[in-house]
Amino acid sequence: MEKDFIKLDSGARVHSKEFGKGPTLLLIHGWNNDWSGFVPFIEHIEKNFHVIAIDLPGYGLSDPLHEDYSVEKLSSVISEFIDKKKIGKVDVLCALSMGTVIATDFAKRYPEKVGSAVLIGPPIIKYDWRMSKLYRDWIKIMNKNIAFMKAGHSVMASKWYGHFTAKYINMHNYDKDLINKHGMKGRKNINSKALFQMGRAMYNYDLGKALRSIKVPMLIVLGRYDKISNLSEASRVVKDNKNIKLKWIEEAGHVVSLEKPEEVSELVKDFSGSLKKS
Q1: What angle do CA 209, 210, 212 make, to 5 degrees?
Q2: Which domain holds residue 272?
Q3: What's the CATH code of the domain at 60?
Q4: Chain center to CA of 9
Q5: What pLDDT does 129 receive?
Q6: Whole-model pTM?
């Protein structure tokens, strides 16, 4: 429906869905999905918040950008989206995986528009990890031209790839039905340029450095068995910045908001409530 779209000054339309009532919670999805990957989490968190789940440009139903993608560009899109929606200040900016990179940059550049932030599975990576290096090298190759991007996207949108990455990388307890229901639709509706340029931008962004300078209250949520986000690295970041708290959930991997949506929802609710009391 037309009310689900905001038109940017560039003419591009940004799609979002809204749920619940209460303090505003803006959701930013990860690299290889759209807003729909948050559905299980939304079913719990909408009881306490007015949830706005956005499709980033080139994802889901949002128009792609004409210019090149970067973390900073998408931060500015989020800023314009908030202005166009007349939100003023987001009470909780909540993001998953790649979305946490954008959320961190946004909180750093536009602190006046963020009350607090929750980062679920931020890719704070030890760069000697072999899988990380393989991904970065592959993304570099895919970024060489649009034909490579389209070919790479066809692989990443496939059912076998979605289940392979869920089973061996993203989930601690692989759930085939959960991936079929919430992990496949979004990956098909991604612009190839958006996918691989943001993949490159995400890995080139120094997330650890940015987090150490964050001034807004922030909560990092990790699955205990996350194979992408490094718990010891996250602990070091939290030690260096007293504005950040760290919580982890047992029996969960990288997509902890999909595996343990109710537990993540409770952490977000408790974190937000603690800020009101302080």
Answers
A1: 65
A2: 2-277
A3: 3.40.50.1820
A4: 24
A5: 45
A6: 0.94
